[in-house]
Design a protein that fits this description.
single chain, alpha/beta, ten-stranded mixed beta sheet, two-stranded antiparallel sheet, 8 helices, about 15% strand, elongated
Amino acid sequence: MSGDEMSFEEVRYREPVRMLRPDRDVRFACLSYQVPGTNDLPIFVDHRAADAMERHALSDTSVELGGILLGKECIDELSNTPFVWITQSLQAKHYANTQASFTYTHDSWEEISRERDKLFPDLDIVGWYHTHPSFGIFLSHHDLFIHEHFFAQSLQVAYVIDPIQQTRGFFQWRDRRMVQVEGFYLTADRGDRSDLARVANDLENFPSPSGPGGGGLSPRLEAELIKMLSRPATPAYVSSPAERAQAAVTFGMLGMLLGMIGVVGALWMYQLNSRMQEQADTLKSLAGAVDRSTGGQRLAMDTLLDRAGKETPADFQDRYERVGKARDEARQQLEAQRGINETLGARGKFLELQVAKLNDDLAAARKKAAENEEDAKQTQALRERVNLLEPDHDRLKAIAATVEGKKADDLYRRLGNYQLATYVLGAASAVLAAILGYVYMKSIDEQADAATPTMPPRPAEPTTHRIT
């Protein structure tokens, strides 16, 4: 993979998790893909994650695709040996890719980080994967550059899939270099053993058993069916007499149109024949020029061979091929270096953001330090004032310890008691005055009521009786 660009966060080293290997845990079923070597790092891949990566690889075989491997870096509790357990994968988005390159961007890594924090916050990034359509299983110089700088932990792996040749393989760190393992393990819960067998058979191109329990469609077959089903279907058509008449008129007009197109096509073919004749004459003249140019080149080649002295034409041909091969390698190295420069540029932008954030934190820390310094100055002033008051405090304490001081203190307490008694008597006087005022006002109201004269009752009017 050339021209790749990766923009990842700063590498954080973590301790492996101690747990039982899946092939030694009765809760899981395991099948091996090919035959893992004795010196290989044991890599366990959940069958759903493997199936998802295969489907992603088959979704578009014209360009390279990729993503991130999620899981846990582990230490076996029984043998105390390391292993890697991959349980999920995330597809990279916002990327730029071609038939021979896959480019991660800063946006794609931010999207992967957000999805991992949202969907799988308990899983760690244990590696990455990408496809090599029809290129085979290997790691290019730029792939190694990416892995060395962004997946440098000893248990982080790389997974390469060739969806056209139907090959795949893991790469691990061994003796400070990346080597391909001979095989890995597929895992599933005990109840999903049939699905595990189907995925293992699909990866090794073994036919899956038919009938109940035989599993679903393989990723390749499902991809082909999706392409077939996505083609526009021809709708069913039931014609009526009116529709048949309309169709006859339509076909008649189409026949006239096709006839006119035929006439125009015949005229065009006549003109095309004339142009082809002219192009044939031009090609003949061009062939003559090429022959003359070839003769000149042959003459120049013979001259160069004569100047070469003892060098034979075969030696000259070999030297020419070596020079051409060196030129191609130089071009490839230039492309790889350009990709590395782009990667470092993206890394530089990310570091600029980190520096800006650190500058903001530094400004806040400086502001806090200035406030603390001001508080320290005030504290120092208060301490000096306390130091100035301490002699007066000691002197007052000594005075209070004498007989006169004790008398003054007793007199101060008595004055306080007198002051409190004064406040109490003032409050009682105010209450008593309020009561006397109330009684006085009530007696005045009663005297006023007694002095008011009583009106005599009104006599009843005489009743007149009318005699008829």
